[in-house]
Write a structure and sequence with these properties.
The protein is of the alpha/beta class. 30% of the residues lie in helices and 16% in strands. It binds ligand NA7.
Length: 552
Amino acid sequence: MPQTQATKPTASAAQPVLDLLIVGAGFAGLYMLYKARQQGLRAQVLEAADSVGGTWYHNRYPGARVDIQSMEYSFGFDEALQQDWRWSERYAPAVELLRYANHVADRFGLRDGIQLNTRVGKLVWDEASSTWQVTSQSGGPSVQAGPQEHWQARFVVMASGPLSSPNTPAFKGLDTFKGPVYHTAAWPKTPVDFTGQRVAVIGTGSSGVQSIPIIAEQAAKLTVFQRTAAYAVPGHNGPLDPAFEAHIKSDYKGFRQRNWLMNGGFGSEYPPNMVSAHKVSEQERQARFEERWQVGGFALLGAFSDLLRSQEANALAAEFVRSKIRSIVQNPATARLLSPSHTIGCKRLCVDNGYYATFNRPNVQLVDISQAPIDEITPQGLRTGGQDYTFDALVLATGFDAITGSVMRLDLRGRSGLRIQDKWKPGPLNYLGLMTQGFPNMFHVAGAGSTSAFTNVMVSIEHHVNWIADCLAWLKAQGRTTIEATLQAETDYVAHVNQVAASTVMLTCNSWYLGANIPGKPRMFMPLVGFPPYVQKCAEVARKGYAGFDVA
Ligand code: NA7
């Protein structure tokens, strides 16, 4: 008889073999557990933190919020859930997303299948039993000290998140700083009050752009150290418009379906304009950009059909944003420093709430470190370009070892002891972003090679989990026990992902999509651009009996 309730495992050798072990209790892990239970699988989630929520559990820095509208950044698999849940703001803050994750866990009775405070340390493929042998890491920063535990599972799903491994640059002297050091991606649970303090922020990606305006309101003095200026477009955040909510809820299913047909899996309310930026007059061009600026968020990049395909068209959008910066920032020298020169959109656009205007405040100073990197963190502050800056608290908004970080830190061994660090030395080789040759029966959700980073990730998660659940059901129906990507399929697929990227402007800057933000990380373009063709391709592979996979 199938078991629908996962029991808490013990270290006993007699514990039953799980059908499915899921690493991570963020949105991907929660939905994977829900789907597995629907299929009567014995499934267990292991989560390092003491709560569900994944990235929204750890990213609780001031101003943390999603950059896709909440009515879209939510699950669509259950009509009653999407009708019942009410978002308070256009872009939900992290704390509300965390409440939502907890609501989903409770609503679908998932908690007894989730073991918290358990960081997976080791996963080894056992050829003889065709199972994964999984061991937890004892102790560790976010893990209660305790004995190692062991599990055996036929399949593993890595739901450990593309943005979950914080990047702390190896700044010389970091441990000598005598004040507190905070990382935006590992923010303390108790709110931090910067009132009256001199604060420094290093990093001006999304996390910096979101936190800087709020820290500036509290701090006596805020110094921002900027290596690359950010393109930030207004979110026009505010209370969720009840009329808009009612409009979406009157046909939520249709809204989700329309979004699935969008290149990023979202934005059907403001679809891209299919006209080239070069085919219109200057006046018309400015009007279209302005219209999208007023809409807010990523809509700007859809103002014309070729903004992410043609460097020349892209330059027009980039200049539009720079003109906005000049109109907002009063000090021309500061406005110049805040004006990015790279291709717009080749690093993820930041959705802001008063970022540029913050630099008009008398207590905020911008320091350009693009020419002279940070030499050293000192006990009182930091030194760059031969100059010393002093402050009481340091915030690292320095991002993530994105997409592969959470997998590469594991002791993960596939067939014949193949280590993931060796397999992925040239970059994260994969097929459909779902599997890697040499690592049978291990699936990735929102990993390298998938469209996740270019989409509303909730849509990517639902797509991936549905695909994996269908695959598991198919294997069972066929009486098969293992599935593994072939080397040929993987090689062709990775070439395809990079070819698609090369047809866009995405390769023109040092983004985390390329692994370029982490010293020594191999440069390989990791996400696939274009959600609908990806969905089609994955469906076609399944229809053809899982073409490109060895099934045994
Ligand atoms: P990001 O977008 O990777 O931003 C990190 C920022 O930190 C960025 O400005 C980096 O400059 C800067 N950085 C990183 N390392 C250093 C060093 N060594 N010295 C100085 N400055 C540094 O991370 P976020 O957390 O803001 O956002 C990640 C994603 O989360 C975002 O894209 C959304 O999808 C949500 P750089 O640009 O590399 O020159």
